[in-house]
Amino acid sequence: MIRLEHVRIALAGIAHNTLRSILTMLGILIGVGSVIVLVAVGTGSAAAVQRTIEGLGTNLLQINRQFAFGAFGRATTGTLSRSSNLTASDVRALEDRSANPDIVAVAPVVNVPSVTAVFQGASYSPALFVGTTSAYQQIKDYRVAEGNFFTDADETQHNRVAVIGQTVATNLFGNTDPVGNVVRFNGVSYQVIGLLAVKGTNGAQDQDDIVIAPLSAVQDTLTGYGASYSSIVVEAASPSRQSAAQAEITATLEQTHHIAAGSPDDFRILNQASLLQTTQSSSRIFTTLLGAVAAISLLVGGIGVMNIMLVTVTERTREIGIRKAIGAKRSDIMAQFVVEAILLTAIGGLLGVFAGVVGSRFTILGIHPIIADYSIFLAFGVAVVTGLFFGLYPASRAARLLPVEALRYE
Amino acid sequence: MTSVESGVPVLRLWRVTKTYGEGASAVQALRGISLVVHRRDYVAVMGASGSGKSTLMSILGCLDVPTSGRYLLDGIDVEALDDDEIAEIRNRRIGFVFQSFNLLPQLTAVQNVELPLTYAGVRRAERRRRAENALAAVGLAHRLHHRPATMSGGERQRVAVARAIVAEPSLVLADEPTGNLDSSATAEVLDVFAQLNEVGRTIVLITHEADVARHAKRIVRIRDGRIVDDVRLAPIEAAPPRPGLPGHQVSGAAP
């Protein structure tokens, strides 16, 4: 049985060999600390990715056109058999609240390719030029830093107004306030009425490199009244209603597009929730991988403990002999060395927790680490168990020493 | 404590042999030792190196077991005991004094003396009190908190003696206790043994020096693993002889 005396004896043993004890603890400290920091980095990066995806509009569903080719067996003419169109009637059908109770907002989107913006000699081509309705702001979660977003009135009156992102503003206006100024897009004058708040990158593209204008004006001046929108964006009532909303969209569009049940759809719905799920599972793998690397260093630290304990036992053979000669039982010697190993790892582990918590306060590779509570308990617990495990063998060697031989040892 | 069962001899050896190794390379260290030591006796076991006296010491101290024969300590057959019980015997009934002191260098004098009580499960305050008493008994009351490295050889050996008697064992077993000491330190230690014997402790002292052996009440000589001589110098009930050492004043009774 382990008694308080064994702890006292073990503590004295650790204190007696200060440098060696510190070096041994260092191995455990680094192991535990790196488990905590690396798991925190993994968790932090996962949270960052999740934030970006949520920044796209948490409840966002995007409907794209899908081309069905004859070669894939539907039609036999050998040409493009159907090009689906996303039309105003689709938008109207989706806006029907009674048929689509889980949809709160719908906005058609027309992307205008290769637009060049000119302002007083400065010219810039924004990555995205979007013609849409005012609902777009809410669905995509854009905030206005200055001025206003355009209204339904701007849309119905075909007003040539635009809202621009920060990247566009910087490139076109420099330090000048863009709101109120007139910019020529492909030669057509639009008045800038709003500047969007910075949204950052979503990983793939700069979300601030954008110009948004009323759909009616864009169709008037830049695209014409083509057969189809580029896409339709839809906001679900809540993240948990996304799949319900997706089902409603499918049903509604299959009706408006006259698609028989069982036939392939001519549209595709991008679901934010499934995107989130994919990235979450991949970042979980990332975190696990980082944790595994750190766990290996913890294991190496544990082997270091065993190494030191074996050296200690050999070095203290005579001490063991003396203790046995004056009445120490096997269990006393066993307890002394096991407790010593556990204390080494426990103290090293505590310092490692401290180091890990402090280390996680710094930004690492552009990621703000977020400490996962479980990693602290896990790393510390594993460290202590490591001490027990790797301390048992040296301790049992010590306990088995014959006193008469141990006393003769020089 | 069994130390009051005065009828039972402290030690009883019957035809004890010890053989190291096997077959042709076997070495017979003890070839049939029979010996009885009674309570309050002070016995010196003498022999040249290689005579088997160290082996005898290991067996008497329960650090090793005989190959054949029987060994009773306080009437207990040691052979029948398991490892933990033997550890307890070493702890409660035997006090060791070694030639090389065998103190733990990282502990102070009083901590060293406390150790046997620690393993006996004695409480801290009680332990400290008894350790201080034991150190006072060997004349080291003023050196409680010194580490072995800061003490003289004679002082270290007296700490070891204090450690040997702190648990009130039936037998104090000293293996060449003066082997590493100069003549004045030797006198100090022998003086302590004489006093301990006078207050009733049983002592078995192993030595190869005749001058040291003369301080005992009885001398047993060993050669080639056999007892060749067994002489009584003083009766068990009497005080031990104090012949002194050649070229050295007898210090007399301690203050």
Layout of strands and helices, then pairs:
The complex is a heterodimer of chains A (410) and B (255).
Chain A: H1 4-16, H2 18-55, E1 60-65, E2 68-69, E3 80-82, H3 88-95, E4 103-111, E5 117-119, E6 122-124, E7 128-132, H4 135-140, E8 144-147, H5 152-156, E9 161-164, H6 166-173, E10 182-185, E11 188-196, E12 210-214, H7 215-223, E13 231-236, H8 242-256, E14 267-271, H9 272-315, H10 317-325, H11 330-359, H12 373-400, H13 403-408
Parallel strand pairs in A: 7-12, 9-11
Antiparallel strand pairs in A: 1-13, 1-14, 2-3, 4-7, 4-13, 5-6, 5-10, 8-11, 9-12, 10-11
Chain B: E1 11-20, E2 27-37, E3 42-46, H1 53-60, E4 68-73, E5 76-77, H2 83-92, E6 94-97, H3 109-120, H4 124-137, H5 153-165, E7 171-175, H6 183-198, E8 202-207, H7 210-213, E9 218-223, E10 226-232
Parallel strand pairs in B: 3-8, 3-9, 6-7, 7-8
Antiparallel strand pairs in B: 1-2, 1-4, 4-5, 9-10
Helix pairs in contact in B: 3-4, 3-5, 4-5, 5-6
Describe, in plain words, how this protein is organized in 3D:
The complex is a heterodimer of chains A (410) and B (255). Chain A is built from 13 helices and 14 strands. Chain A is an alpha+beta fold and 410 residues long. In chain A, the strands form two sheets. In chain A, strands 1, 4, 5, 6, 7, 8, 9, 10, 11, 12, 13 and 14 form a twelve-stranded mixed beta sheet that branches. A two-stranded antiparallel sheet of chain A has the order 2-3. Chain A is elongated, with a radius of gyration of 34 Å. The two termini of chain B are 29 Å apart. Chain B is of the alpha/beta class and 255 residues long. In chain B, α4 packs across α5 (153-165) and α5 (153-165) packs parallel to α6. Chain B has helices spanning 53-60, 83-92, 109-120, 124-137, 153-165, 183-198, 210-213, and strands at 11-20, 27-37, 42-46, 68-73, 76-77, 94-97, 171-175, 202-207, 218-223, 226-232. The longest helix of chain B has 16 residues, at 183-198. Chain B is globular, with a radius of gyration of 18 Å. Chain B has a domain at 39-66 and 83-232: Rossmann fold, CATH 3.40.50. Chain A binds chain B through residues 3, 5, 9, 12-13, 16, 318-319, 321-332, 402-404, 407, and chain B through 58, 61, 63-64, 83-84, 87-88, 90-92, 96, 98, 102-104, 106-107, 115-116, 118-121, 163, 167.
